[in-house]
Amino acid sequence: MAKGGGSSRVGKRPAKGDTYRRLVDAAIETLCHDGFGGASARVIARRAGCNQALVFYHFGSVANLLLAALDETSARRMDRYRGAVATAGNLSALAGVAADIYREDLDAGHITVLSEMIAGASSTPGLGEEVAARIEPWIDFTETTLRRFVDSTPMGQLVPIRDAAFAIVALYLGVEMLTHLGDECTAAESLLATTAQLSTFLTAFSAAAPTSTGFR
Amino acid sequence: MAKGGGSSRVGKRPAKGDTYRRLVDAAIETLCHDGFGGASARVIARRAGCNQALVFYHFGSVANLLLAALDETSARRMDRYRGAVATAGNLSALAGVAADIYREDLDAGHITVLSEMIAGASSTPGLGEEVAARIEPWIDFTETTLRRFVDSTPMGQLVPIRDAAFAIVALYLGVEMLTHLGDECTAAESLLATTAQLSTFLTAFSAAAPTSTGFR
DNA sequence: GTCTATACTTGGATAGAC
DNA sequence: GTCTATCCAAGTATAGAC
Question: What is the pLDDT of residue B13?
């Protein structure tokens, strides 16, 4: 609301675009590299190459800057996921695409930002609700994506899709946390391969089984 | 090593048992209630009803106390899980038992301690390895438990058990984090119910299918 | 073993010069 | 918009009295 106002024209950036953006990027990098506990105004500002006071000038508080960082990565990744998922033809292909993008995420650290914010929310009053509101779109996205592939198959009757979407998002987060603990990247990689195989099986299963299994 | 030494007899507690234990319990409660970021020596000591300096006298550092807290909950819960899992006869019953104990965990906050420690490890140098070493037993436990029920079924050939164990632990963590964010306890509860149903289906599937599916 | 007192550090946040 | 300077709160850790 206060942002964007001032003495400049509408279409032109009021010079906000420079350090403001650099702070957001620096916050993302800091969350990935030093975690929520290490993401102080001073550390972030140093990485952004500016003064610590600017964090409060632009965002009012460190927590707000961190939320802006989460918004930024969320938006970037959501675009990427939407685009990539659109190219998948069946459930098996979807799993393959999801695995590829997930590897991108691990590399770029976008899921790391999310999990750090979730973790940090426990010790920062009021942050939990804000973070929760930013996760819901991901569960929704996962749900609609799943429905597109699964709703017409027997699995659509067998498994509550909303639960499956929730579980998938939770699994992503859990794998991320465990992966960033030690050097067990092999475990995550192995799991991705397994998931790809399983989805191939499920696709075959869905195609072979009758439209309704009568189960449940 | 330094603990237990001093002027007292072997079988007798050197009065260590009092505040030492109270500090560990207070650390557990603090991790659950205030998160890793809120678990300072001062806050924990206040909850334990003693002085802040005793944290450093007994444990040397806050991080060490937190690790002791993790060890304590881990040991308690491992006992409980082992005992409960032993009563399960098939995969479906196992899922039911797991769901029950998981609810206990959510209530008592034992998984919360684990996830907070994982999250906090990102911003405390050297903590990651310690926490990782304390998670491995849980993956091992999950793996051997799974094998006991699944190894002789077609699923044993279809799914790499180690991956499945890793995924289950990751899922537990992810669900915990999402649950403690807002008041989405309903989502976790719904997921537990779904899992119970699914495992029933899988049990039936395993019984009906031939010993080897020839898949993979 | 436990407490008080204290040294030292870091972090959030604001005021005011430029 | 950006910087310097500063205040204040909170945390880790140690020394020393009891």
Answer: 42
